[in-house]
Fold these 3 entries.
Entry 1:
Amino acid sequence: MALIKRYGVYLAIAAFFIYTLYSLSFPYQPEGNPIQNDNKDNHKNGNKDKESSKSPPASKSYNWAKVPINYPVESMVTLPTGAPAPLPKIQHAFKENEDATAKNIRETRREEVKKAFEICWKNYRQKAWMRDELSPISGGSVDTFGGWAATLIDALDTLWIMGFREEFASAIKDVESINFGSTPMAMINVFETNIRHLGGLLAAYELSGEQRLLKKAKEVGEMLYRAFDTPNHMPKTRWDFQKAGAGEKQTADQAALVAEIGSLSMEFTRLSQHTNDPKWYDAITRVTKVLEKEQDKTKLPGMWPIVVNADKSDFTLDNSFSLGAMADSTYEYLSKTYALLGGLEPSYKKMYEKSMATAIKHTLFRPMTPDNADMLMAGFVRVDDSVPTLAPRMEHLVCFAGGMLALGGKIFEIPEHVTIGRKLTDTCVWAYKASPAGIMPEVSHLLACANTTGCAWDEKVWKDSVAAKADLGTDKDPLQNIANLRLPEGFTSIEDRRYILRPEAIESVFVMYRITGEQQWQAAAWDMFTAIQQHTATDLGNAALLDVSAENPPKQDSMESFWMGETLKYFYLIFSEPNVISLDDYVFNTEAHPFKIPKPKA
Ligand code: DMJ
């Protein structure tokens, strides 16, 4: 018992520390920030940001392929051999002859998305080239992920898919010049480097066949491989690059976010497949084996908690579970890695089925909304004394789950998952529509029905829940106070009102469209795109928003690389012909980089 108490305190501290780190990477700025609220006064911000825009000095440079390994593995797990098994058909059987009017509308919309991308690309090239991000209001630039041109690498395959072939070709020589052996940053986020840089380079290589990109992917792979050089071969997640480069011994983290441990399998598998070097597949298989071993031992068997002890390979201590932030892509990668391995590694299927059975049972709730729509959302579960309690939380990040379940339902032929995927995606589309800006907030809570089969809208119940939660006290006019909270009907609180150009909602809408062929998803996508463009577009690109519940949301001088790598790519693809990056041929990594699914020989 004393041990449990000690671990409980330790975990709480570790979780708080990690959550703080996570929040710091997406800092909230108050509404009154003049940088955001006075776009006319940009020159001031420009000056300020330009100073901070100077490239910081780079560190010593390491040739990662030659940095000695402290804990070599005794034997290597190799890629499964044999002919890939055929996957069931994923995409809807689209008609060859598209109606002329529908085609015209679709193509016009696709071109609008392309134009938005082009503005961002040109300004990134002109004002922030080789830096991680363009600051879309001031025209400054920042380094957030190693200083290795994150936006350039993240956007490469989007360039290719959108047909900007000259820009693609002319960018390659600059990609070649990126030095992954050196960084001005103290710590490297292994997960982000993996999904953005390694994923981006691999997908751009696959699409173009350009060997120089595979060479760069290998360089990133050599670097990331050193993060696995720990006694138990579990990776460091926030990684001291300099110490590792100097050959210092390292141990895996005692408190790591499960998403940062569990979302390396697609890229590492793919790198081994392309290089015929098994070491990356070996590295990731060691993590997969721990996930498999721990899956039934956690406080919510079937799912893994948000914080895990990688150093002890113990994933059983934390009591928080979610399909959303800090866990998300661990679940996403199960079905997709299965597909990438040609269906030859059954453990990914088993883990998908078990984890989704638990998630469906414990994390889903039906929101109570004025139109009584039959929808679902995935919330946040805490387990105390073996009793799970579900909080009806909604994150923008969790909106990927609709697409994940719909795709998993197709891959593994589980129709119920496709139905649930649709209902989850419906809630995200509804949340966009319900918000005054037409864009859903980053984090909120909804009013949940008592069960997932449904309940009728009750305005009084909603208002009472809002009042109780907000502790509106004994003010004379509690209803006016509710209005001041600026909550759309059905929302009980909004904890984070930002929209930081995230892709998850359009990602699921895109998957639902390709799987069902229903035009309603294109219509929903267009509403989302027009709202996002209306509020986020700047002269130089698109900016994150601070408050989507304001009619004119104030902007933040930030444009993460996933806007061009991921969000705009999904918007473009939903208005493209369905055979462009077909879901029958590709799986997307969690940063929307498409990898080709191996097929059996005809
Ligand atoms: C992206 O980097 C990836 O989609 C990741 O899985 C989650 N966070 C961002 C986008 O919101």
Entry 2:
Amino acid sequence: MSHISKSRLTQKQLDAHWMAYTGNRQFKQDPRLIESAAGHYYTDTDGRKIFDGLSGLWTCGLGHNVQQINEAITKQVNTLDYSPAFQFGHEKSFLLAEKITEFMPQELNRIFFTGSGSESVDTALKVARAYWRKKGKGTKTKFIGRAKGYHGAGISGFSVGGIPANRTLYGQGLDSYHLPHTQAPGSEFSKGMSYIGSERAEALLDLITMHDASNIAAVIVEPMSGSAGVIVPPKGYLDRLREICDQHDILLIFDEVITAFGRMGARTGSEAFGVTPDIITMAKQVTNGIVPMGAVAFKQEIYDTFMETGGAEHMLELPHGYTYSAHPLACAAGLASLNLIQTEQLAERVKEMSGNWEYAVHSLRDADPMVTDIRNYGFAAGITIASLDGDASKRPFQIAMSMWDKGFYVRYGGDTIQLAPPFTVEQSEIDSLINALAETFKEVS
Ligand code: PXG
Ligand code: PLP
């Protein structure tokens, strides 16, 4: 499985960086180092061209080295490199906020800026608690997440998150409870939304019975779970969560860090699945991943509640924010990226081509018996691989490494392989990716 890397790094340099979500010991024996990127391809330090099968980390739907975005950032850095985020502002943050509202459901028209998806989740959960306090319902503090959910790496994100490996090391988190995930038996190999599993939304009623709505601030779910391997909501499931939240005065948060801005073949997951939450968290694609940025969209009523109860006008209505909230470079990158998604009609392109994508990924069903499930929506797909010697993550690791050797970057995590090609992917590139996967499945089986 090994490939030769002409890394110029010394062992000391490799050791100095404790890498994020990485098997550091394995990586440092055989580093996979990327030197440059353009369009849909990386070039590694061996000079090999590698197809970007996950659009970075679900970030770069527009591909890499996009001239318009690069120019916008360059111009910005030469004009205003940093602007204090608190009590002073710069014009581009307001332009970007308005631009983001063009992608959000109409009612979610107040945008708060953060530096990442994890900070967006923190922001959404803090505002949910504070909102109820403002409403005189200060006992509403508990959160409900979902098994297999991913909501970032912060203390709040791991608490509401539902991927066991991300939780077990870290002890006590926030007071959070979890809905079951929606991968119901019989839903395997569903194309797009499954007809099986929507009844699992009823579990929210059990949690409400157990904890009482008077103690619950919000339910947070990804409309389509990304990190756990592309788990698409069953038909009717999100609608039912919305209905129960409405009936019990519980805020509904969609974590759209992966699903917002085109990946679902729509402006948001909310639009794709036809359900409007009270709060949407986003990050990644907002700047095409080029400058770190996150944001949270709130229903106007939530914003108004804070303004109306904010005290004297010089007072802060919400004591919350980040040094890098609305960073000028991120705002410039965001405006350029979102303009491109609109003018190039990329969400529409994803929708149009998603049938071809679906056909291609589901053709892998017959590649090898170790493929036990395939799921897809928009330009996303998750493939579940049967475990090897009782180890669920072994084969996905082997597959990803073999794909890297063949010149394809794909994501592996848990028992799945995840795919998310750029919005501008060509059919021939999809075919090459799928052929390489089929070959690799046979190799490692
Ligand atoms: N919420 C969701 C739904 C996410 O997918 C975060 C929050 C956290 O965002 P930051 O920017 O703090 O990482 C995420 C991030 C993968 C993968 O391959 C997914 C994420 C991050 C890295 C890898 O599935 N999601
Ligand atoms: N820790 C210290 C000591 C700080 O001064 C700050 C910000 O001023 C933070 C953490 C938070 O950093 P950020 O605003 O980048 O999230």
Entry 3:
Amino acid sequence: MAGEIFGCRMKNTSASPTDKTAGQRVVDSLECPAKQTVSGEMKSDLWQAEHENQDDNQCEYSPGESYEQLPDIACLEISSTMDCMAQYPYEDYTYGEFVIMSDFVATEETQLSLSCGDRVVLLCAVTSDWWWVEHNGNCGYVPASHLHRVSDEEDTEDDDPWQDEEYYGSYKTLKLHLEMLSDQPRTQTYRNVILQNSAALKGKRILDLGCGTGIISFFCAQMAQPEVVYAVEASDIAEQTSRLVKENAFSGIIKVIRQKAEDLKLPSKVDVLVSEWMGTCLVFEFMLESVLQVRDLWLEEGGIMWPSTASIHMVPCSAEKEYATKVLFWDSPYGLDFRMLKPMAVQEFLSKPSPDYVLNTDDCLSEPCVLMNLNMKTLKIEELEKMSGPFTFHVKRDGMFHGFTTWFSVEFQNIDNKEHVELNTGPFNPLTHWKHTLFMLDEPIQTHRGDRIEGSVIFHRNPFWRRHLSVTLNWSVTEESATTAHSVGCKVFPIWR
Ligand code: GJV
């Protein structure tokens, strides 16, 4: 599903962990001169809600300041608890939920005031004394001595890291299924794959993971002659899917299994595992983990994975209108000087990506590149924790560089030949319900033809909220003839926690 369903909102706070006693890490001015964004709280009705770029929670790190207490780290990535753990092996570092044992009153902006009984999520055990935590969407330092780990028994259902209730709840009504089925490029691609492989699918056992209303299973039953199609769906929509199968007289072939794929029991392994699992920035929702789990348990050796590969693409772009309506707006509304609100606007509107952006090809400043390529046959679940890719773009025309836009493509390898079918959600292909994802810089950079935009992207899966991730962008802009960059930056975007 696309971004629209991932409405989430950050609670408003801005923390600058410049308190030396709190053990601020060195932020290398070359590698990370810009600000970092940390994730906040998600709206409870998140899966269905409209995405609102509001109330973001962004932390700024001043470049060049050095702090003695901690070793050098180029970039402080709050969401990257895994990395923190590797760097700071404190005894009780494990991320997770903690309860505040006694009131704590913040003495610095970078700290959080908390009351006895408050629950927080540990994001990073920065030093043995000071831990970086999240509380209701606000992030800050708290003395480690005030925290007590919440044991599994005390854990409430509200804190399910997979948010299954909200997640599957959002798929029990028709709204999202209508959106997906109406997406012609998406649905027709799956149909084409089945059609092109109809002969090869004869007698095969197929598993359709997250079948929703069953469309892919129906295509299989209609156009091929598989032995069986297991249509696995965990949400309540599965009841309707069962009725549809009966009504369309496919009960002999399609077996609807109303279950989480993780709990699946089958009489035998399958030959084909097909699924439409892609989300914002390809991986958000991390339904991909379910697909990989099922692959490892239920796909025959040498079986088919559809999609077979997936790629994340990116391009630097101009986004004049976005920047004008959200930031420049404050220059002189109704002839008044509202410029003092611009930093607030940047924080509020630009600290999360825009998941429903539609990139005009004219706004591309260079050719796009492929950041990451995933092979569904070999990809390991652990590899989802941190995925990264470098980029080098050659700017092809003068223009304002406002940010980066990403999209994804997936390929379906044909069973009997070397051909494949592609679904590309990018700006050079018909628009899909996933649209494009825009990551805006806090300030645009004037670029010229011949400039080089280089850097890297890191996807860090949230160690606690397993369907979420943060995207770290590092970039530099270098003029054609220059050897050193004239502009460098780093920004972390939560999606959505
Ligand atoms: N087991 C069963 N059904 C699932 C699972 C799972 N582990 N995960 C997702 N679904 N492309 N990002 C179902 C979900 O209930 C919904 O109907 C469908 O798969 C999502 C498909 C679109 N989401 C996406």
